[in-house]
Amino acid sequence: MINVLNIDGQRLTPCVLDRAWREVNRARAVWIDEQTIQLLYNPFLYREYRKAALKRDRYTCLWCGRSGTTVDHIIPSSKGGSDRPYNLLAACMECNTKRGDRPAFAYWREKVRFAPRRVRLMYRIVKANVHHQLNRLS
Ligand SMILES: [Zn+2]
């Protein structure tokens, strides 16, 4: 098992090696030594952000209008996308998996006929991209 530290050094439940590597590869954690990773985010806060995003989107997949119980990162985590609600969309498992790490604009074009509120969705994508650019500059 791998020891896990919170962003402020607090010790969390240990995890398996695979999970530790997944967090590190997604730029969500760093290795402190060969048996310890430190998270670069607060997992408790992330849970709250997810909940807030799902509630805001009424548990409806914004890509296709079906029931949405997962959150999709508009800017993917692998590209440094934030875990804050502005970067999260409620999504069904299928859309979340199908889109993968593709840019949100590309998936929007593919799904535009099905999206229940396509203009609002485009607005959200643009907003997340603007936020992302601003965060990079600061
Ligand atoms: Zn969907």
TrEMBL record:
<dbReference type="InterPro" id="IPR052892">
    <property type="entry name" value="NA-targeting_endonuclease"/>
</dbReference>
<dbReference type="InterPro" id="IPR003615">
    <property type="entry name" value="HNH_nuc"/>
</dbReference>
<dbReference type="InterPro" id="IPR002711">
    <property type="entry name" value="HNH"/>
</dbReference>
<feature type="domain" description="HNH nuclease">
    <location>
        <begin position="48"/>
        <end position="97"/>
    </location>
</feature>
<keyword id="KW-0378">Hydrolase</keyword>
<keyword id="KW-0255">Endonuclease</keyword>
<protein>
    <submittedName>
        <fullName>HNH endonuclease</fullName>
    </submittedName>
</protein>
<dbReference type="Pfam" id="PF01844">
    <property type="entry name" value="HNH"/>
</dbReference>
<keyword id="KW-0540">Nuclease</keyword>
<dbReference type="GO" id="GO:0004519">
    <property type="term" value="F:endonuclease activity"/>
</dbReference>
